[in-house]
Amino acid sequence: MSSTFFIKKKENPKFAKKGNNTAGLKRKGDGDSAGKNKLRAKKPVSKHNEEISSDSETESPIVHRKRQSNEEHDYDETPQEKKLRLAKRYLEQLKEEEEDKAEEESFETDLIAGRLQEEVLEQKGKLQRLIAKDLMPPDASEIRVLRGHKLPITCLVISPDDKYIYSAAKDCSIIKWDIESGKKVHTVPGGRKGTEDRHVGHTAHILCMAISSDGKYLATGDMNKLIMIWEAETCKHLYKFTGHKGPVSGLSFRRGTHDLYSASHDRSIKVWNVDENAYVETLFGHQDAITGLDSLSQERCVTAGGRDRSVRVWKIAEESQLVFHGHEGSIDCIQLINEEHMITGADDGSVALWSVNKKKPLSTVKRAHGCHGDAGLEQPHWVAAVAALQNSDTVASGSHNSQVKLWKCGQNYRGLEPLFSVPVCGFVNSLKFSSSGQFLVAGVGQEHRLGRWWRIKEAKNGIYIIPLKRKPTNPEEAKTTE
Questions:
Q1: DSSP state of 95
Q2: The pTM is what?
Q3: What is the phi/psi pair of residue 227, to 5°?
Q4: Closest by CA position to 230, among listed 242, 222, 240
Q5: Residues with Cβ < 8 Å from 163, sequence gap 6 or more?
Q6: Of 189, 336, 322, which is closest to residue 252 (Cα–Cα)?
Q7: Of 259, 218, 268, nearest to 239 (Cα)?
Q8: Low-confidence ranges of the chain (pLDDT < 50)
């Protein structure tokens, strides 16, 4: 405030000198009272000046100093120095950007390396997701049943995104189901025998089906030795593959490709290129009708040889095969757990766990689904379907004893322990785990998929969606982990 007062003292005399005539006129007209009035008139002006000057005092010294320093800086700095300063600043920015980029790249590299390591472990069969210990049986009310086929369901697959189920039956029809709503999305009706030339679809029992890992193609095989290729999204018919001399009993797409492997009762394996609508080659080796086939990402497939009681691993590129023995009856179903381990089921009632590096099973459970028949004449329930949750320790098996059984694979797949059973009335002809491991789907019918040896009248031809419930985590354990 004192500075403001002094500024006024310095400014007023100058103003008075410049405005002498005006001041003189005022004094002549008003006298002493005019002088007093003049002093009184100055007070509001001085207050106004004080407000302006006090505001400027809070801001102007800083702004003034900045301007002054900038002016001095601009004045003192030569063009060359300014260029050098800007160049240094630019180089520093570049260095910071490079460091940030290097950090991001190292993080991405670590992620990729981790994924690659997981893939290698998966391929070697050493990555085992331990989830069996957390599973618990669902309530009967939680199991959903989808009904639409008139005759027993023989096979089914789940789309890679777990949104749809494709099922086929002895009525020669194919149905695409929406899992969430349980409604039919598309239906391909079956045709009557003798209408093969004009009917688009199957006119004989469908025994097997497969879907490509990208969800683009659906393949189905029937008793008429035919393989049909469909557009999975619309169920539009694309191609028909002929060449097998017996019923087509197994189909599988190699993961990540559109190469299709097919197995038949004619004891052969055929390789097809679906993109090119082309046949590739045929492989022979089994001594009896092949009953099942599966494959993953490697260029090979595994097959169950029915009554020749052999399991075979086919190395497609090398055109060689590995032969495994272990079951005492017809091996009717097979599924890969990972690239190195598989599970099989047979009509001797046994479920076996295998490694592709061992000629004999790592573990076998005999009479896995119990027996039926009169005392002294008991026969084991045939194991008609098996399924495996990929790269995990959880597998499932199905028979006609009105139960789906879930099993836990021991450490290094050296054993099979029963987890629990899920009640399902009828012949369990097909089993598939969802990719997410959230549910298991069972295709059930009144008859076995390969024949009419028995008929369970009270059974429903339908698809059972079984949720895989997890045990709730212990609150105390959760606290300790936190």
A1: H
A2: 0.73
A3: -120, 125
A4: 240
A5: 178, 179, 180
A6: 336
A7: 218
A8: 1-59, 63, 66, 72-74, 475-482
